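User: Predict Major Facilitator Superfamily protein's structure from this.
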Amino acid sequence: MMLQDNGYIFKPHELPMMAGSPATPDMSGKRRLLYGLTGFFLAVAAGLQNGLMTANIANLRGELGLTLQEGGWVTLAYFMTYTTASILFFKIRPHFGLAKFIRWTLLLVLASNVLQVFFRSYEVEIIARLMMGMGTSGLFTLGVLYAMLSVAGMAKVALIVILSGLMQVAATLALIITPNLFDDGNMQAVFVFQGAITALATACVLALRLPPTLEQKSLSWRDVLSFVLYTVGIALLCAFLIQGQIVWWTTDWLGYLLALAVLAIGLMMLIELNRAKPLIDWRWALGRNMLMFLIISFLTRVFTAEQGTGANGFLQALGLTTSQLITYYTIIGLSSVAGIVLSVIRLDIKDIRRPIVVALFGIALGSYLDIGVSSQTPVSYFYTSQAILAFSSFYFAGPVMLEGMVRAMAKSTDYIVSFIAVFAVSQTLGALLGSAVFGYFITYKTREHYANISQQLTDTPANLLPNLIRQANLEATVLAYNDLFYLIFLCAGTSFVISLFAWLYRRMRGINVLANEMVALEAMKSK
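Assistant:
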C-alpha cells in the first residue's frame, strides 16, 4: 500500500503500524526530540485542563452560587465524555484521517475554554465540561502519537506508560499552582490560563505536523449505536457514584440512574455479542485472563483513593486550604514522578505482576502510618505516608496498562479498542467507587462516634454547648478517618499477602502470565 505526502513516497519500513497511526519517516535526532517534547507537553496540557477545574470546583461553586449537587453535575460532565471518548477516537482516526481528528480535538478543547472565559453560568459550564472531557481525551491521544515518533521498538510502550502517568501528575501540579491563579478570588484567571495552555498546544501542533496515516473505513452505524449506549451507561454509573455521596444513597432517583445504566450497558453488550466485528469484544474482555487482570487493576485503583478521600479529606476537614498545602502537594507530585520513572526502569515483561505486589505493600504501609492522627496533627505528619502512597499509585499503573496492551496486541490490533474501553472504565469507576465507599464509611463512622461523644454532653452548661458540639463533631470526624485508615490498611494488607503468595508461586514454578501472548507477538513479527 502506497502512502505519500507532498510528493514524498514513504518507504515500506516508514508506513504506519496500523491505519490511524502516523507514518514513521526517517528523521534527524533533533526532529525526534521535538516530537518527543511536543508529546510530553500535550499530555501535561490535557491533564491540566481537568486538574485545574477539579482543584477549583469549590471556588467555581462559590462564584456561580451552585449547590453541592449542581457542583457534582459539573464534575460529572467531564467524566461522562472523557471515560469513553478514546473508543470513538480510535475508530475516527483511521476512518476520517489524522487531520480531521486533530482539528476536532483542538476545536473541542478551544471551544470549551472560550465558553468558560466569556460566558459564566451553570448551564454553560456543563456544556464546556462535556466538550472538555472529549477534547482532553483526544489531546492525550495526540500527545502519545507525537511522543511515539521520537523513539523506536519497546521504548514506545515505555513512553505510553510515562505519558499516562504525567497526565495524572498534572492534577497535582494544578493544586500547586491554583493558589496563585485564584489569588484575587476570581475564576477568570484560571479560565484564561487554561485557554493559554490550549493555545500553546495548538501552536505546537501547527508548527510540527504529524506525518500522514493510512485511511480505512472502520466506523459503522452499529459502532455508533454501541458507543452511544456504552457512553450513556457509563455516564449514568458515574452519576450514581458521584451524586450518591452528595444527595445520599437512599435518594430515590439514584436507583433509576443505576437501573438505566445497567439497561444501557446490557443492551450494548447484547448487540456486540451478536456482531462478527464488534466495537468491544466482550468474550475476550471477560475471558479468564483478562477478567483477572481487570479485577486486580480495578481493586488496586480503589485502594489508591485513600489519598484523595483519606488524607486530603482529613486535612480539608481540619480547615486547611490549598495554599497551606503547597509543600504537601509538591512532595506528592515528586513522589508520583519517581513512581513513574522507577516503574519504567524496572519494567520486566516476564514479571509484569511484581509492581502490583510492591504497590499494595506501599498502600498498606502508607495507610498504617496514617493511623493515630488527631485534630492537632500537623501537615508534615503526612509527608512520608502520602509520598509512599503516591509512589505506589504510579508504580503499578504503567505495568498494568502494559499487560493489558500486550494481551490485546497478541490477539490483533483490532482488540486494542476493546482493551482501551474496559481498562479506561475500570480505572475511572475504580477511583469513583473507592471515593464513594470511603466517603460513605467516613459519614457512617462520624455519626457513630458523634453519638457516643454527645452522650457525655448532657450535663453541659448551655453557654458552653455550641463550642463543645463543634469540637465533638471535629473529634468524631477525626476518629472516623482513623477508622478509614485502619480499614484500608487491613484490605490493602490482605491483598498484598495474597498477591505476594501468588507472585512467589509463579516465581517458583517459572510461570510467566504473558508467555502465550509473547509467543503470539513474536510470531506476528516473523511474518
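The radius of gyration is 24 Å.
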